[in-house]
Fold this protein.
Amino acid sequence: GAGVSQSPSNKVTEKGKDVELRCDPISGHTALYWYRQSLGQGLEFLIYFQGNSAPDKSGLPSDRFSAERTGGSVSTLTIQRTQQEDSAVYLCASSLVGASGNTIYFGEGSWLTVV
Amino acid sequence: SQQGEEDPQALSIQEGENATMNCSYKTSINNLQWYRQNSGRGLVHLILIRSNEREKHSGRLRVTLDTSKKSSSLLITASRAADTASYFCATDRWAGSYQLTFGKGTKLSVIP
């Protein structure tokens, strides 16, 4: 597609349920990033995929969070046993390569509300 | 952890005035980028300045970088109501893996 596509746009879930957020990066982009943004805050790095390399998972806040990227394209961020503090916008981005100086293109985000 | 810190946190100006936002960071960087975000949704890349550059222009945007002070500024000249948004700086560096770290942003309001 023309840009980074994320789904769902909005998700309301009950505390304790699992959620999956999907990201479809720009075609041909080898680097993919997940960030989290709480209301009125900056972006918190979660995970970074670069080609076939092992992902950088250093930003995942707990073992309830996991992400995978299948076939080097689509990525899914999974949050298990959701908590209210997980409520945030989850932003996905991609770039041609994960290297310094590359422009990063963001999707519109998935707004997660845990009630 | 946050690498970049923008100030002010919020800025309100009249249309036509210039807006200046600052960003400070802690560690050495390769490049610094500025992004814009409308209404808490996706970010849009505005401009990138490399660590060996001191100033860069793009339309009404002017970015400066002072690596000795670990700081950058974004100037928007002749502001418009449509410039109302949050502005973030992001620093990139290699630390075992490629890292792009964002600050908390400056919320700019341009009053018509």
User: Anything to note?
Assistant: DSSP finds no helices and ten strands in chain A. The beta strands of chain A are 5-7, 10-13, 19-24, 31-37, 43-50, 65-69, 75-79, 88-95, 105-106, 110-114. Chain A touches chain B at residues 4, 31, 33, 35, 37, 39, 41-43, 45, 48, 50, 56, 58, 89, 91, 93, 98-101, 103-109 (CB under 8 Å). The CA atoms of residues 35 and 45 of chain A lie 5 Å apart.
